[in-house]
Amino acid sequence: MTRTGFWMAATAVLALTSAGLAPALAADPAPAASAKPQRQCFSARNVSNFSAVDDRTVNLRVGVKDVYRLDLMGPCHDIDWQHQIGIQSRGSSWICSGLDATIITKSPIGPQRCAVRTVRKLSLEEIAALPPKHKP
User: Fold this and answer.
1) Does 76 lie in the same domain as 23?
2) Core vs surface per residue 106-117: b (16+ CB within 10 A) or e
3) Measured at the alpha carbon of residue 76, what is the angle toward residues 75 and 77, in degrees to the nearest 5?
4) Which of 66, 80, 84, 106 has the CA that lies 20 to 30 A from 35?
5) What is the pLDDT of residue 10?
6) 8 and 56, same structural domain?
7) What is the pLDDT of residues 87-123, one digit of tens each?
8) Is the same domain home to 69 and 111?
9) Which domain holds residue 22?
10) pTM to 2 decimals?
11) Is it the case that residue 68 has pLDDT exceeding 90?
């Protein structure tokens, strides 16, 4: 088969395949709910308070009304006793995923670095449902 013949055959197969699939695609449009959720990022500079839920979960107050939950890779010992924490961001000051941040706390032997696994912005309903001691 020549190169031209190959492309003509490929075009014919593509046209037949597209024609067969077009009615099925038109009849069942993708629902809007299946769209990829928008990433919700925050600037490390805008963090004003924190609350440790346990040694693997930290809630951060960002700005006036936003709260982000950070799930840590492993236990961050004594984080629930800390009065201050540091947030080190990688690449820029924007934190969008766990790979973007590390929590730094004080320990008797020096700084303790706690890697972040996930970052998620809490909804207003989730913030309202938090116990008072877990609200940053």
Assistant:
1) no
2) eeeeeebebebe
3) 100
4) 66
5) 38
6) no
7) 998 888 899 998 899 999 998 889 999 999 999 999 9
8) yes
9) 3-28
10) 0.70
11) yes
User: What tokens were used for 54?
Assistant: 């346990």
Domain tally, the chain:
2
CA distance 112 to 3: 64
Give the closest residue to 136 by CA, choosing from 80, 60, 75, 63.
Answer: 60
Record the tokens describing residue 18, joined without a space.
Answer: 């597209």
pLDDT of residue 49: 94
Task: Enter the DSSP assignment of 11.
Answer: H
The CA–CA distances, whole Å, from 98 to 5, 48, 61, 132 equal: 52, 19, 17, 25
Q: What is the mean pLDDT of the chain?
A: 79
Beta-carbon contacts of 42 under 8 Å, excluding residues fewer than 6 positions away, are 60, 62, 63, 66, 68, 94, 95, 121
The answer to whether residue 36 is domain-embedded is no
Same domain? For 75 and 104 the reply is yes
Count of Cβ atoms closer than 10 Å to residue 27 Cβ: 7
Q: Are residues 80 and 16 in the same domain?
A: no
